[in-house]
Write a structure and sequence with these properties.
With 237 residues, the chain is of the alpha/beta class. The protein has a single domain, classed as 3-Layer(aba) Sandwich (Uracil-DNA Glycosylase, subunit E). A six-stranded mixed sheet has the order 1-3-2-4-6-5, with helices on both faces. It is globular.
Length: 237
Amino acid sequence: MNQNLKLNELNAEISACRKCPRLVAWREQVAREKRKAYLGHEYWGKPVPGFGDPHGRIFVVGLAPGAHGSNRTGRQFTGDASGNFLYPALYRAGFSNQPDSVDRDDGLVLTDLYTAPVCRCAPPDNKPSPAEMANCQPFLERELQLLQPIVIVVLGRIAFESILRIYSKNSIGEKRSQAGVKFSHGALYHFPASSLIQHPFTLLCSYHPSQQNTLTGRLTVEMFDQIWSTARELIER
């Protein structure tokens, strides 16, 4: 079975998931009631699958769909402020064919990069519970196993902690100590092969491109561009 088909089957499974009653109720309520600006839109209202190049060497991990962003459009980082900051940066770095992400049919294509959230459903107040994230973790593990990335870019502390949990669970032999492995913008960590990712990989940390960070200046365009420049250098070594 080829890579595209495997990912398509996984994405169909993700989109049909109903494991978390609170998230199912919320995402579907938002899709019914809609925001005034999007009354004419048909909301996705389901778990959001991963998106990007099926052979991408860079895997980008976000947090969760926005209620009126990905929960509306059905595509990761599409139709919200975070995507409006992310995709222009990917375009400048040569990972995207266009700087805009409006809907699933806008022609956006990612090259050498795949992206997926820790939590697949829009959570109330953008805060998925630990149990809800645990329900989603097998999806992320299967994506990582399929893509075998060289670089994992985590957008925010929750994504960082999720990848550490996955790595610890799948490490080979004596578990690597995570003492000193702390989240900070621009931090780089090198990990040996695991039973999930069968070669060494690099974990690259970035602040999440949420308005909470971009409008306050905590994450600037220059800071974000440096992340993607570093990711490019890592895969081309």
